[in-house]
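ugh ok fine here u go
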Amino acid sequence: MNLRKLILIFSILALTATSCSSDGTSEGSTYTQAADETPTTTEAPAETAAPAETAAPAEDESSEEGRDELIALLTIVFDLETEEFATCMVDEMQAVSGYSYALLLESTLSEEDEDDLDEIATEVAITCMSDLSLEEIEQLSAMDFDEDDSNLFGDESTVPTLEISSDPNALGAILSVEEIDFTDETIVGWLVTYRSRSVSGEPIQVTGTIVAPNSIATEPRPVLSVAHGTTGMADMCAPSLAYTGEDVELNALVQPLLDDGWVVAASDFEGMGGPGLHPYVVGASEAQGVFDIVRAAQTSPTLGAEGPLIVWGHSQGGHAAMHASQLWQDIAPELDLVGVAAGAPPSQFPFLKDFLMNGAFQGYLIMVAAAFAEVYDELSLETIVEPEYLPLVEELELGCTGHIFEIFNPIPYEDLTSVDDIFGDPAWNARLVENDSNQLPNQTPLIILHGDQDEQIPAGSSGLLLDQICALEGHEHIERILYEGHGHGSAVQAYWSDFMSWIDDRIVGDPVNQENACSTITVPNS
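structure:
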């Protein structure tokens, strides 16, 4: 049995069913009649079926392996509206033939002829015709089939696909999709716009990227959801824009994950590539983006993005990762989040404000203030920014981080603000505290990775963060590694091999090292 023969079988049966409808019978009875009028035929497979003891599927979990993938494959190939017909076909084929689902999937993707399975497929297709709508029958009967046409069993049937979702309102629904032109033919990826939810609960559009091995998944694949660092607040700063154009190269750090069969998804976050100002370091918004891009990847069964999930981010992405670890069960409990890695996560906001003001990264502070004023109705920039500088806020959407620093860093902080201490304002203080990374326990194993010479997020802040999370009731395992001699940027390369080892242990279910719980390991600079 192979895909080309299945197409021929279904096309012929659909054409027969369509011709039966010309007698004026109602739509509701046409395709049901095609099956009901052949009672003796539907029993025929029993005469040639394998003995009952070989037909019964094994009772261990492996007996289901390949089932969902085969159902999804048939549904996609024949462009069916629902999975009912494909589900019937797959389950009946398994029961009658005695083959495992995995073997049926392998056989379907094979170009080898297997006459016994072809005969069973024909009979089973008749049995399952009642699960097709009249529109689907007509669609199948209209298929342009040529048994010598290799396009029916070519690249399109053996590589993953990502399609626009039928339900545009579901979280993670694909609203638009464009394939990435990678130079590496072993991987495939897409620029996507997907459905998400704003902090206020409104449906929004968010952009991002999804990358996977260039082969149809035959089992669930592990997934890495990447939370990006600070790039700016405007649409032009969306990280996915780096994957437009021709001959795109994948980030070298991520390449080994693709080689090992991972799916990698990265959200641009709310407001970057979509309407509105980006809610910079608003934790719930970041976590929503981190999880909904995974839901978007899961809309394609051919990707296999149903495996264990890891979330990683650095800098702003570390802040997002922290909140993902703390809000997982509230936002996406159905996802199998097995671990989170937070690189240089911002925390201790009052301390950070003092550290950043009048320095090379002061622009971060105005980004936070503008984002919070946009998101929270009770907050207003007019209460904290001097009137003469309010028009400059428009510059946040006219350039990325470098532009923001050029505009705001030269202004003395004392001149820029109209209050002595923003944390002295109860409304602002409440929202800033809410979005700090130290308020909630982590719900999944968490590792903090930080360079001890970080010039943007001081290493001492993550040490305090570790102690604060460990003091919270109900937290899961948390540990911290400090890398001597490394700053904000170089720390990523320094910790990457440790990060890779740690996440490999998480996806295979190895226990965390309890000796490292709530402690810091210092790695000397090599």
